[in-house]
Specification:
By secondary structure, the chain is an alpha/beta fold. It contains 16 helices and 25 strands. It has two domains: 255 residues, P-loop containing nucleotide triphosphate hydrolases (Rossmann fold); 222 residues, Class I glutamine amidotransferase (GATase) domain (Rossmann fold, 3-Layer(aba) Sandwich). The strands form five sheets. Strands 13, 15, 16, 18, 19, 20, 21, 22, 23, 24 and 25 form an eleven-stranded mixed beta sheet that branches. Strand 24 and strand 25 form a beta hairpin. About 2% of the residues have low confidence. Pathway: Cofactor biosynthesis; adenosylcobalamin biosynthesis. One of its GO terms (molecular function) is catalytic activity. This is Cobyric acid synthase.
Length: 512
């Protein structure tokens, strides 16, 4: 059976996901089979596995750091907020249904068997399991039915590392206050405290570390510096949303209220002189070289939001000379109409942005597939993509049809649906067309479409050429290699700042 260690935080965005990923990479480097686990994740960034099952992208990132394929066993429960009061509940990669927060709170204890089964199956694949908590373990109003923090730690008998974020201030109050609110049995599980995102001279902090250990009676096992990394983070509090500086080439991403899978833009972040700005008002739009409409968990509501705040009109005005690209929900918005006869979202129908000749009908069944294919022979601005291979995945609740003869964006084969859908092989390799384009406007259902090969670099070269400048991309490594380098950099930083001997002692002393 696997040894296990758990990373909990004093608050959301304390750095749990990144630290868990770093530990996964360290244990992998040290020769262990390691896997990440998070019993319940709330996020709008999700991924489709080879089996056609849906899971949170944070655990995908951690699986990459661990050097293993993502599996829904790593994230048996995923909550995708649909509004301020409810979420779509996904269990073992399948949609269970939409629930209000109160209904889910009453229901979630019944999901404990699913959590246990996933964890037990994951144990068969790993020597060490690195568990990530959610939010804070000191949410005393939620403690009774907890399945993701101390409740889970008790369930699997895991020692805990508690992480505080000094960058946001009050780290001593964060850590000591959290410990004070824990039950005595829970306090005993906390084997080490970590101060995260430290900037400056550590010697100035040292007296505070000593007092923290004296008052909390728990050792501080590390002061982790603020590290400049390009690694996926959780969606709700992403620091990427704070970027305002414009590069020589500027990509504006529409940050609507239910933005999902903004990770589609990560590949562009490694290209020097290219800015990725997430904007939510007309005054922030300025004059980008490319406007991207990303995925949305509530397409009709987010389109209404754009219509009301003037972004729709501004984007349509710029479409004459600016490259517009829509992915998934953003693709649906670009069409002529969206109808919702089954009340998947808002019900009824609405006019789209009318930039692409397509119509979308939202459906009850969610499409969940991995995709491989090639770009069609494209004319116009992205013609250099013609014939290039692409990989990605689809995750949407709707079907889209063209209303006039217009070229498709790419030809694809579906590679990841469940076996019962396509026979014993679980694969449907029948080519089909996806997306379309018209003049400067492009759309597709495929997430991750920019990640493979030189697709992102080709788009940047086109944008730069149109602007009469040159952006050097020839020396860039592919995105997979770039991410591997980031995980190694993360592990190196953690090894230098964490007492790994103490962490290994915590692992050896774990009951499991």
């Amino acid at each position: 059976m696997a040894k296990v260690i758990m990373v909990q935080g004093t608050m959301s965005n304390a750095g749990k996901s990144l630290l868990a990923a770093g530990l996964c990479r360290i244990f992998k480097q040290d020769g262990y089979r390691v896997a990440p686990f998070k019993s319940q994740n709330m996020a709008l960034n999700s991924f489709i596995t080879e089996e056609g099952l849906e899971m949170g992208r944070a655990q995908v990132m951690q699986a990459e750091a661990a050097g293993i394929a993502p599996s829904v066993l790593m994230n048996p429960i995923l909550l995708k907020p649909t509004n301020h009061m409810g979420s779509q509940v996904i269990v073992n990669g399948e949609v269970l249904g939409n629930m209000s927060a109160r209904d889910y709170f009453a229901h979630k204890k019944s999901l404990i068997p699913d959590i246990k089964h996933a964890f037990q199956d994951l144990e068969k694949l790993a020597d060490i399991i690195v568990i990530e908590g959610a939010g804070s373990p000191a949410e005393i109003n939620l403690r009774e039915n907890d399945i993701v923090n101390m409740g889970l730690a008790e369930m699997v008998d895991a020692p805990v590392l508690l992480v505080g974020d000094i960058d946001r201030g009050g780290v001593f109050a964060q850590l000591l206050g959290t410990v004070m609110l824990l039950e005595e049995s829970e306090k005993k599980r906390v084997g080490g405290l970590i101060i995260n995102k430290f900037r400056g001279d550590k010697t100035i902090l040292d007296p505070g570390v000593v007092m923290l250990e004296e008052r909390g009676n728990i050792p501080v096992v590390g002061v982790v510096p603020y590290m400049e990394l390009s690694v996926e983070d959780e969606d709700s509090l992403s620091t990427r949303f704070d970027e305002t500086e414009e590069g020589i080439l500027d990509i504006a991403v529409i940050r609507y209220p239910r933005i999902s899978n903004f990770t589609d833009l990560g590949v562009f972040e490694q290209i020097e002189h290219v800015s990725i700005r997430y904007i939510d008002s007309v005054k922030e739009l300025h004059h980008p070289d490319m406007i991207l409409l990303p995925g949305s968990k509530n397409t009709m509501s987010d389109l209404t939001w754009m219509r009301q705040n003037g972004l729709e009109a501004a984007i349509k005005k710029k479409s004459g000379d600016t490259l517009i690209f829509g992915i998934c929900g953003g693709y649906q918005m670009l069409g002529q109409s969206i109808t919702d006869p089954h009340r998947v979202e808002e019900g009824g129908s609405m006019r789209g942005m009318e930039l692409l000749p397509i119509q979308t009908e939202l459906e009850k069944t969610k499409t969940r597939t991995q995709i491989q294919g090639t770009f069609q022979n494209l004319e116009g601005r992205l013609s250099d993509l013609s014939g290039m291979e692409l990989h990605g995945y689809e995750i949407h609740m709707g079907s889209t049809v063209k209303t006039e003869t217009v070229d498709s964006l790419c030809e694809c084969s579906v590679l990841g649906e469940k076996p019962e859908m396509h026979g014993a092989e679980g694969t449907d390799r029948t080519p089909r067309m996806d997306g379309c384009h018209k003049k400067n406007v492009f759309g597709t259902y495929i997430h991750g479409i920019f990640d493979h090969g030189a697709i992102a670099q080709t788009i940047i070269r086109e944008l730069a050429g149109r602007k009469g400048i040159q952006i050097e991309t020839s020396g860039l490594m592919n995105y997979e290699e770039f991410k591997e380098l980031q995980y190694d950099k993360l592990a190196e930083g953690l090894r230098a700042s964490l007492d790994m001997d103490k962490i290994y002692v915590m692992l050896r002393e774990a009951a499991i």
